[in-house]
Amino acid sequence: MLSLSHPPKPPSFFPNHQNPRLTTENRSRLRRQQQQQQQQQRRLVVSVSAAKLPFSPPPSSPPGEVYQPFRPPPSSPLPARFRSLSVTERLDVLRLRLGLWHEYAPLISALSRDGFTPASIEDATGIPGAEQNRLIVAAQVRDSLLASAAAFPADLLAFFDAGGGAEVLYELRLLSAAQRAAAAARVAERRLDPRGARDLARSVKDFPRRRADDGWRAFSPDSPADCLAFALFRQSREALDPADRLAALSRALDTADTDSARTRIAEEIERATRRGDDSKEEEEEAEAERRAAVPVLRLRYGEVAEAAAVVLLPAVRAAEGAAGVAAAPARLRAQGELGVVAAEAAWGRWAVLPGWAPVMEASETAVAVEMEDGRALPWRSMAAAEEAVLVVAERGRRKVEQEGGAYVVDREGRLVVERGKRLMETGVAEALATVVLVVRPPREDDDQLSEEDWD
């Protein structure tokens, strides 16, 4: 029996092809799924990154109290009678200056930790910001005196309890603990004012930097009085008027504490007195004799590389003394067709200089002495302060013959340069070497010294 039915649909040539309506719905559904997946990935990345961060649980606080961050304790603790005061009462103490200055000074730090600014404290108490800082620093200096290994004498400490004690102690703030105690004792013994304390503190701070200055070794770094005397000793040399120079030396003599310092100052006073009695012509003649006929040159960048000839000299540090000069090789010889330089003895340090005529003439017995500070050399100009120099000296000429010459001698195991006139006055007839040339390091502004700058 035959039945009528619809014939089956032929297979589509594009089996995945759908009608446009279904395709639009699928695309919307697919887009939403992609957005959900992206959001899940972002949450996963954030959670993983947060897991890698260091985590510290919040500090626990008693119930009913708000957590407050840690604040360091004050450097100067409040006196017992001020600890229970309210903020208003503390402001009244500062406004009325109740008590000694070092007792109410810590109140300023306490108010600052409570949120007060220097301006607001000044409005409430009338104490300017600069004075607030001075009181705080002076109180810290006073506490350091009490905390020192050797207890500061109570009778001397009472000197700083007066109204001007804060200004005086404030000037000692830059010194170390040991220097501060010695300087404070000197201030209290001599009843110095803030300006005197400032001069004393500056001289103590500056004294170690003047190691290369003439006469430094005669003064003691452990004595604040000697440090101040040395500062006056240096100032006397800057005075143009002989009367001013003698006045500064007289103050230095009264200030000095050690016998060696007094002896050195007395010698300088005698020399200044004798010089003041000389006539103008004699002074000019003495000045001409003090000038050493030694050239002082500054290297230029690339000068050694561009030189047609160079000189190789054994280098000796000033701290090595006479033994270093004696041990340095004396002769260098060029061997073979290539001119290989050979020394008569092994040596570890060498200086290479351009083939200047004075150096070439003395090269067979010359040595280069390394001076860490050019101020140790006897020249008047201080432009070369705190720079290293090379002193080229000829060991073949050791006899002190010229008053205007310069010579390398050994002083307490250290090499120094002295004028010939001074060596003759002290009876020294032979030195380690005669200075031929002084070489300064290169720098941008070339201000070479002339022979007149040599003292």
- The helix/strand order is HHHHHHHHHHHHHHEHEHEEEHEEEEHE
DSSP strand tally = 10
Top CATH class of the largest domain: Mainly Beta
| DSSP helical segment count | 18
| Low-confidence region ranges | 12-22, 46-56, 67-75, 448-455
Query: What is the global morphology?
Result: flat
Helix content percent band: 40-55%
Q: What count of domains describes the coordinates?
A: 3
Round the Cα radius of gyration to an integer and report it: 40 Å
State the major sheet: 8 strands, mixed
Mean pLDDT: 79
CATH fold type of the largest domain: Umud Fragment, subunit A
Strand content: 5-15%
Distance between the termini: 143 Å
Query: Structural class given helices, strands, pairing?
Result: alpha+beta
The appropriate CATH architecture of the largest domain is Ribbon
Biased composition (Polar residues): 15-25
Domain Rubisco accumulation factor 1 helix turn helix: 87-145
Biased composition (Basic and acidic residues): 269-278
GO cellular component, one term: chloroplast
Explain what the structure shows.
The protein has 455 residues and is α+β, with helices and mostly antiparallel strands. The chain folds into three domains: 80-203, Orthogonal Bundle (Arc Repressor Mutant, subunit A); 211-277; 296-453, Ribbon (Umud Fragment, subunit A), CATH 2.10.109. It is built from 18 helices and ten strands. The protein has helices at residues 20-52, 80-83, 87-96, 101-113, 118-125, 129-146, 154-157, 165-170, 177-190, 194-206, 224-238, 242-255, 259-277, 280-290, 303-306, 321-327, 357-361, 420-425; strands at residues 296-298, 310-317, 332-335, 340-343, 350-354, 366-371, 389-394, 406-411, 414-419, 433-440. The strands form two sheets. Strands 1, 2, 5, 6, 7, 8, 9 and 10 form an eight-stranded mixed sheet that branches. It has a two-stranded antiparallel sheet with strand order 3-4. A hairpin with a 4-residue loop joins strand 3 (332-335) and strand 4 (340-343). Helix 3 runs antiparallel to helix 4 (101-113), helix 11 (224-238) runs antiparallel to helix 12 (242-255) and helix 12 runs antiparallel to helix 13 (259-277). The longest helix is centred in the N-terminal third of the chain and has 33 residues, at 20-52. It is flat, with a radius of gyration of 40 Å. The model is unreliable at 12-22, 46-56, 67-75 and 448-455 (pLDDT under 50). Residues 294-443 form the Rubisco accumulation factor 1 C-terminal domain.
